[in-house]
Each structure stands twice: as C-alpha cells, then as structure tokens.
Amino acid sequence: MIFNVLGDLFQKPPKTFYRISKSFCKGDKMAYDKSLDKELFSETAEFETSKITVSVFSYNEGAKKLQLSRKNLNPETGEYQWSKLGRMFKDEAEKVLPLMQKALEQM
Questions:
Q1: Is the pTM here over 0.85, yes or no?
Q2: At residue 73, what are phi and psi to the nearest 5 degrees?
Q3: Which of 7, 29, 52, 107 has the most CB atoms less than 10 A away?
Q4: What residues are paired with 55 via a beta bridge?
Q5: Angle at 22 between CA 21 and CA 27, to 5 degrees
Q6: Within-domain flag for 71
C-alpha cells in the first residue's frame, strides 16, 4: 500500500509539462514590460528617516495587486534609497494600515 502511494507521488509529469518548462529554460520567457504595469493607487506614509508607500498595480490589465515598499533616508546624501520593507514598528503599522484600507477599496 505505502509503495503505491510513494509511486504515485514520484510519477513523471505529463509531456506538456516538459514542453512548457523546456521553452522557459531556453530563454523564451515573457519579458517584463514597464509600459504594461499600471499604477492604480499610491499613497506614502512619511517618518523621520524612512517612508513607506502603499500602491495597487495591475500588469497587462490583469489582477490588481497590493504593493508595500520602503525607502530609507541616506544620511550621507540626504536622498531616499529603496530598501526591503521587512518588519515595521508599531507607529509605522498604525500609519500604513489606513492606507492599505484605502488601497483595498481600489481592488
């Protein structure tokens, strides 16, 4: 019984899977086209040394997706630089949550 279950788990995928995966491996991937990426909503919460932007995007008129991004202030240049959002402090979350609610209304 257990061998039948394991055998089912390790069966070869259908041939169409190989055709699709081979074409992607050969560099036939669809390239990202910035002109097809539409920003439907964007608001920014600013803090002392960073800012967090809440946005809604739709790529090629597809599903709307929520995006959170952070920019940290570089003390040497005085300019903001993109950074991984990572964790938020409570005050950041409290300012970002209402923006997320507004963004959800656009989705």
A1: no
A2: -75, 125
A3: 52
A4: 42, 67
A5: 100
A6: yes
